[in-house]
Design brief:
Number of domains: 2
Distance between the termini: 27 Å
Number of helices: 13
CATH architecture of the largest domain: 3-Layer(aba) Sandwich
Shape: elongated
Structural class: alpha/beta
Helix content: 25-40%
Radius of gyration: 25 Å
Bound molecules: cytidine-5'-monophosphate
Largest sheet: 8 strands, mixed
CATH topology of the largest domain: Rossmann fold
CATH superfamily of the largest domain: CoaB-like
Strand order of the largest sheet: 12-11-8-13-16-17-19-20
Number of strands: 21
Length: 404
């Protein structure tokens, strides 16, 4: 499956660099074309010549050491490698490089290429166990994962420091299988498609301090945006108030209220080939938000809020729907689930609706997994098993692709 694929291997400074020689050798055995770049620290562990011999290509180490006679070479070198790669694997990925990637530093060839590339980036964190479990490193790894980096967790065992724990480079075969799996998922089958995704809750102001909101975390919509971008789509993500990282290569527009989401969606929907409304848009908002903080009344007095309805974004999109565009909605019901979902599908003129279950274990708000039923306009209703929100996202995109 890797035959003919361009695999860029980024080596950073760590004792496991010697094992990456075997990774390069075995990747080449699969028929892949492999190029290696190294940080300066990596060259202290393994000579560039070793990787050059193993990969059959020059090894780039220093941004400044390019053939100085060719100005165009210098100007485009990082971009060339970034666009050449089908996948970029950083192994070993040191704590230092992981921190740089998290904050977008670009002070060497490896970090520049990571910033410039659109292909999947995989990381094999390999270091001393204490460095690995340090909350700073863990937080950085988590943030990169949220953005769509594929992290291959280290093996546990004896470490060069004499300690035992997590931090060893995983088996070469595991790394190769992960690259294969990643490239399989990221088949660029949505290239050239513009997809608009909404995610998260909306907040409707009661006064300058309080709001009406809901428990949506935005994880499902963000997973769809991430998966679509990895499959080559041009993704615009309209996000309600959530605390999630923006996936790589996704254009994000932050909004707060249903009215703002309505405006942002309509500003971009006409150019989109598909719109996926995963946001939990408020159906009602306070009739008028108070200008000043509402004061507490006497201890026994109640407060009545009058609510007005918000625009139904999806309904308005369905009314204006052009032939050939695909509209996908989400539904979360607590009773008569299927019937209500089918009614919504018709009323809002959707191609299919994704029914979330609140009752199933592992489904619903804030979880990393979901259990959904896909209800199409035509054809059979499909209940999918429990899976990660990212896998659910790919299932949704598979069905959407067939309708485009
Ligand atoms: O709220 P409801 O259950 O009708 O939500 C179904 C679908 O409609 C969801 O995809 C949601 O994003 C969308 N919706 C909307 N505007 C609203 C309410 C819901 O676009 N005001």
């Amino acid at each position: 499956m890797l035959r003919g694929k361009h695999i860029l291997v980024g080596v950073t400074g760590g004792i496991a660099a010697y094992k990456v020689c075997y990774l390069v050798r075995d990747l080449r055995k699969t028929g892949a074309d492999v190029k290696v770049i190294m940080t300066e620290a990596a060259t202290r562990f393994v000579a560039p010549l070793t990787f050059s011999a193993l990969s059959g290509h020059d090894v780039a180490t220093d941004l400044w050491s390019v053939n100085q006679s060719s100005a165009s070479d210098i100007a485009t070198r990082h971009i060339d490698l970034a666009t050449w790669a089908d996948a970029f694997i950083v192994a070993p990925a040191s704590a230092n490089t992981i921190a740089k990637l998290t904050y977008g530093l670009s002070d060497n060839l490896l970090t520049i290429i990571a910033l410039a590339s659109r292909c999947p980036i995989l990381l094999a964190p390999t270091m001393d166990a204490d460095m690995y479990i340090n909350p700073v490193t863990q937080q950085n790894i988590g943030r990169l994962q949220e953005r769509g980096y594929v992290v291959i967790p280290p093996d546990e065992g004896d470490l060069a420091s004499g300690l035992k724990g997590p931090g060893r480079l995983p088996e070469i075969q595991v790394i190769i299988e992960t690259i294969e799996h990643t490239l399989d998922k990221s088949a660029q089958d949505l290239k050239g498609k513009r997809i608009l995704v909404t995610a998260g809750p909306t907040f409707e102001s009661i006064d300058p301090v309080r709001f009406l909101g809901n428990r949506s975390s935005g994880k499902m919509g963000f997973a769809i945006a991430k998966a679509a971008a990895q499959r080559g789509a041009e993704v615009t993500l309209v996000a309600g108030p959530v605390s999630l990282e923006t996936p790589r290569s996704v254009r994000r527009i932050d909004v707060e209220s249903a009215a703002q989401m309505h405006e942002a969606v309509h500003a971009h929907a006409s150019k989109a080939h598909a719109v996926i409304m995963a946001a939990a848009v408020a159906d009602y908002k306070p009739q008028a938000a108070a200008k000043n903080k509402i004061k507490k009344q006497g201890p026994a007095e109640s407060l009545t809020l009058e609510l007005a309805s918000t625009p139904d974004i999806l309904l308005s999109l369905g009314e204006k729907k052009k032939k050939g565009t695909v509209l996908v909605g989400f539904a979360l019901e607590t009773d008569n689930e299927l019937l209500n979902a089918q009614e919504k599908l018709k009323k809002k003129n959707l191609d299919f609706i994704v029914l979330n279950s609140l009752k199933e274990k592992g489904a619903g708000f804030g979880t990393e997994t979901n259990v959904v039923t896909i209800v199409p306009r035509r054809g059979k209703i499909e209940k999918l098993p429990l899976m990660s929100k990212f896998d659910v996202a790919n299932e949704i995109l598979n069905r959407l692709k067939n309708l485009l």
